[in-house]
Queue: 4 jobs
Job 1
Amino acid sequence: MEAIKIIKLINGDDIVCTIPERLLDEKSPLVKIDKPLQVKYIPAMEEVGLKDYVALIKWTSYSDDTIISIPKDKIMTITSAGTAMTNSYVSVSSAYEKATMVTEHNQDSYEREELDDDVSKKLNDIFDSLDDSTKH
């Protein structure tokens, strides 16, 4: 298995991936990375205070490509992932191909129902009050 790397981009994104040796080309202005996952930091309030959780999400969610090219001049650093991050990456990346984002919705799959008059009036009152509060 290839070493798991963390790439810090100049825009601040942290990307966890592998860099296949067979695709390395020192002369190319691009680096080819395999199955990139973006690190998202999620703050959560707990009894002891604020704690960050880490989530790995598919970085190129609108593409089925697993090999992605990024310009070398957009990379700040490349480091080796620690044990915990490596384990997380292996777990999440094993389902990489399945992690495609749904970009189309089938409107026929939604069940439609008409709201009764009382519910409809309550919703309209709520929307009207929200509309009034944004005008001030």
Job 2
Amino acid sequence: MLMKKPEHKRFEYQPRYYKPEKDASQKFKEKFEITRKAYLVKKRNNKILFYFLIIILILYLAIRFGVL
């Protein structure tokens, strides 16, 4: 034969299987991450409020005692 004989194509396919126990653990991780993010947002909001109150207190005292 003068020409190359055609061969079939080879694929690197690895099948994925459904694992219910992995699905449950994934749902738990997502739920935990959502609650964690909500906690961090709440914590950040508390810091901003605290700093705002400190600034207001300092301005009040400065006006009250005639520094400003």
Job 3
Amino acid sequence: MSKVIVVTIYICLCAFAGLSQTPIDLKRQVENVLHDDILEEARWALEQLPVTVTDQRSPRSAGTIHDFYSEGDYWWPDSTDANAPYVQRDGQTNPKNFSAHRLAVIRLSKIIGALASAYLITHDDKYVRHALLHYQAWFINATTMMNASLNYAQAIKGRVTGRGIGIIDAIQFMEVAQGALVMQHSPAFDTEILTGIKRWFTNYLKWITTNAYGIDEMNAKNNHGTCWVMQVASFAKLTNNDTLLTFCSERYKTILLPAQMEVDGSFPLELKRTKPYGYSIFTLDAMTMICQILSNGKNDLWNFTTADGKSIHKGIAFLYPYLRGKESWPYQHDVMYWSNWPVAQPALVFGGLHYNNVSWLKTWKQLDHHPDNSEVVRNLPVRHPLLWLN
């Protein structure tokens, strides 16, 4: 009998019997569920060689070979004029747009996430040594490294060479940064490489907090503004930038939670979109990760509540019934990818652990831990929970 089945049965019995479980017990159960999958994915990761943004370049990119480039998902050729600027179809992804760089970053996050998770389980430095090959290629090697900016992300043919909303593509670097954070004390982690990694993320943080694109994205009123805070918090944690960590925490408490959540725990701006289900899940996960990254003994975002009663607990509680069974979803269905959600969402595992909620964890265990749909993966930057539990 697999570990997943054993743990799930145990949790169900405890829930049925009304037995309370300590946070340590629940954390161990999560680790047991993830254990075998982590080692299997790490075996794959050990066989992967680096692929960076320099391996492919779009002729439509206005940047250099070292610049990340992507194109707006919902922009399509004008059916009346092939030479005209692209036109928008909100919620409908154009599969022919350039996505090689985005896929390369996602691949990197999978590789580093798997290697770092396996290192936490086994303490085997072979995972660290292989991870260094990828860190060097992406952030240090002058021939293959990526520039620490996103000036050319989510461009639109015939309209713009890049946009502030393209910064959301960088959330896939979160587990890359977190991987370095959890492996940095290994004797196999070369100190010069670690310094180079932190220098790259320091430069990126300077760009995202001063560039006009970054400022626009920070001020976005929907999931984009939330994801700005989420990624800045993640990278500030790696680089020990206490000023930005404090800024992100205050922004969550004074801007994100008050402006984006309704008093019932829903996210009205996301519910208005053509993919209200997927966007609601995405925003909830992002806010959950902000709480997970920034909370400490002096600043507990998990238990922060606004004057009118908004909190991350209320957000998870609102969406949970529709994660457990989306047939009860009372709003319109997403125009695309309705059948692909939900998966093993971060909000369920971290919320379940923090609030000692066995039901949330049970649902998390039963959902898909290995989604392969590109849209789902793109909106699921945290796929290795073990990295964030230490």
Job 4
Amino acid sequence: MVRLYFDEHLGDLLSPLRASGHDVTFGGDQGRSGKTDAWHFREALDDSRVMVTLDKGDFEYLHKLWTTLRTFRVVADQHAGILTAAGEPGFSHSDWVQHLRDKLRESALEGRLFKWVQSTGRWHEAQWRPEED
């Protein structure tokens, strides 16, 4: 199963994903709560965990920054992956659980960012992919 890092706004999804066998660290745990998105991203990086968040704007930026730094060989490793969602009308955390499970089963996530879009019923990959050797 996949090692995950859940942003602090997703505590209601911990039990269902843990029940699916995933190893989940929660950003809302004591000592982690209230930290910046960059801090949480670094924690996920340090522990090789896929970041799961609804803060898509901040994490799209962090994804672009990390992949650019990798292109310039400032950092060596790819991040483990980022899964986010577009907060649209009708979107609920409980509806997202099955889509998360499906994505975690089917895809290589390393170095990639995927966004779930409720209106299309699909995952969309961020197109920011700087050239690499």
